[in-house]
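Feature request, filed as a ticket because there's no other form

It would be nice if the structure record came with a short human-readable summary line next to the tokens. Right now we just get the raw output. Example of a typical job, pasted below so the devs can see what we mean:
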Amino acid sequence: MNDFLQVYRDHLPEWWPRLLDAARITAEISTFGFLLALVLAAALVVMNRSRFAPLRVASNAVVEFLRAVPLLALLLALYFGLPSFGLTLSGYWAGVIGLGLQGAAYVAEVFRSGLDAVHRGQREAGLAAGMSPFQIFTAVVLPQALRVMLPPLVNCYVSLLKDSSLCALIATDELMLAARAMSSEYFLPLHIFVLVGLIYFAIAFPLSMLSRLLGQKLSRGRRALGTT
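Raw output as currently delivered:
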């Protein structure tokens, strides 16, 4: 055990700056991918709730397609396939777009379930009170839907963060690619990948706990509203 830890004492000053820089890139592509997923998911939900049937069909088809396609296949298509059409993306932006596209399918379901959780009668009551549809959405529907959506949205971000490790296969300088390069350089793969796993844990675990706390707190709020 002492020999195992001695490796960290010897090499951590060299490893840590490289891993921190790679962790920053991992956080960036995960965050940008998640923001893209939020925008695309909102558009998909708007299409799904449209009165125009072809838009609803298109929205459902896109969601099912993106959920069925493996993220790795999507990343490889963006990175290696798009140059055939004259569009070349760096590994960084191919990773962001790939994460955003697949994340959008799951975030759209979170949005849809959150909006459906608000009883239709509240919308009708708002209309009867003379509120516009926009006022009803912003003042009545959205605040209640957010109670349902926030915990699973945090979980979606954590999933994207972990899935971002696949971006190493398209030459994105994120945490996993840095770990592979360092393991080849130092011939200490066990020590390096254990350290990388701890870094992922340090990022993801607090977010998972936040999701759980939000779920508990907001569910208590819903129960309190239901008893008044």
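Something like this underneath would help us a lot:
Residues 224-228 have pLDDT under 50 and may be disordered.
The two ends are 59 Å apart (CA to CA).
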